[in-house]
Amino acid sequence: MRRSLQQNLLICLSALLIASLGCGTAHDEKEKYVLVSDNLQIPYWQAAAAGFSQAANQLKVRNDIVGPDTFDPKAEQQAFAKALQEKPTGILVSAADPGLLKDDIAQAIAAGIPVITIDSDAPASKRLFFIGTNNYEAGKIGGERLAKELKGKGNVAVFTMPEQANLADRLRGYRDALEAHSQIKITQTIDIKGDPRIAFDTATQILGKDRDKIQAFVCLEALAGKEVATVLSNNSVKDKVVIAMDTDPDTLEWIQKGVIAATIAQKPYTMSFVGLRMLDDLYHHKPSSLDTDWSKDSFAPIPAFVDTGSDLIDKSNLEAFQQAKKSVTGGKK
C-alpha cells in the first residue's frame, strides 16, 4: 500500500522530533558518580547521601557513596584513591583535609575525571569548583545571634577542627561579627579532632574550673553542640549560651528544651543533589579543559562557587523546619 506524501512527511517529522528530544540527554551504563566523605554515619552525611541517591535515581545513573564512618581524613583519602582506580564518571568530595587530597584530585583531573568539592573545600587543588555553604556568612549569622544572646558582654569557648577550611571561615565570620562588641571575647578555641568525647570532656572541665569565666559555647561543627548541651543539662546549668551547627535530631531536641539557643542549618541534601547533576552535565557537555582556572575567566562555562544557603533555627521556626524536613525525607531522621 502506497503512503501519501503527507504521511511520509509526518513520519519524517516524528523521527526528527524523537531524535532531537533524545540528543544530549541519554545516559549510558558506563556512567557512575561517586560521593566521597567521612563520618558517613552522622545525620548530616546521611542527608547528603539521600540527595546524591535521589539525583542518581532521577537521571538513572549508577552512584556510590564511600568513606569512613568516623572522622578520619587519611581513611577518606584512601577511599578517594580507591574510587579513582575504578575510573568513575565524576567525583564529589568533602575535603576533611585539603592537603591530603590535593594530589589525588590532580590525578583525577589529569585522567579527565571532573572533581567538585562540597561542604568543605580544597581551594588550592585542581577541583573545578565548590558547592556548599558560604561559611563566612554562616559564621556572621551565628556571631550576630551570639552577641544578642550575651547582651553584648561575655567570654566564649569555641569548638572546632582548625584544619578544615570551612570551619576556619566560620570562625572568621564569628570574629568579624563580634568586632562591634568589644566586651565579647573568644578566650578558648578547642580542637575536637572529630571526636565528640573531646567536646564533652572539655565542657565538663570548663564547668569544673572555669564556670564563671565562660558565658557561651560556640560549636562550629555538628558534633559538639549536643555534647555541650548534655553536659550543661547534667549539671543543671541554665545560665550559658550555646550556638550550635547543623540540624541533627539531638541538636533540635536541645533547642526545643531551651538548652541550645540556636543552630545554623546547612543544606547537605542540596549540595549533593546539585553536585551530581552538575557532574552529569560536565560529562555530557565537556568543557574545553578540566585543567583550567575558570575562576579567572569572565566567560567561564562553570561557576567558581555555588552557595546552597544557610539559615538560623531556633524555637521560633523549629516546628516549621521539622515539618519541611519531614515532607522531603518521609519522616526519616
What's the SSE blueprint?
Blueprint: H1 5-22, E1 32-36, H2 43-59, E2 62-66, H3 73-85, E3 90-93, H4 98-110, E4 115-118, E5 130-132, H5 135-150, E6 154-160, H6 165-178, E7 184-191, H7 196-209, E8 216-219, H8 224-234, E9 241-245, H9 249-256, E10 262-265, H10 268-284, E11 305-307, E12 311-313, H11 318-329
Parallel strand pairs: 1-2, 1-3, 3-4, 4-5, 5-11, 6-7, 6-8, 8-9, 9-10
Antiparallel strand pairs: 10-12
Helix pairs in contact: 2-10, 3-4, 5-6, 7-8
What can you see in these coordinates?
The protein is of the alpha/beta class and 333 residues long. It folds into two domains: 138 residues, Rossmann fold (3-Layer(aba) Sandwich), CATH 3.40.50.2300; 131 residues, 3-Layer(aba) Sandwich (Rossmann fold). The protein contains eleven helices and twelve strands. The strands form two sheets. A six-stranded parallel sheet has the order 2-1-3-4-5-11, sandwiched between helices. Strands 7-6-8-9-10-12 form a six-stranded mixed sheet, with helices on both faces. Strand 8, helix 8 and strand 9 form a beta-alpha-beta unit. The longest helix has 18 residues. The radius of gyration is 24 Å and the shape is elongated.
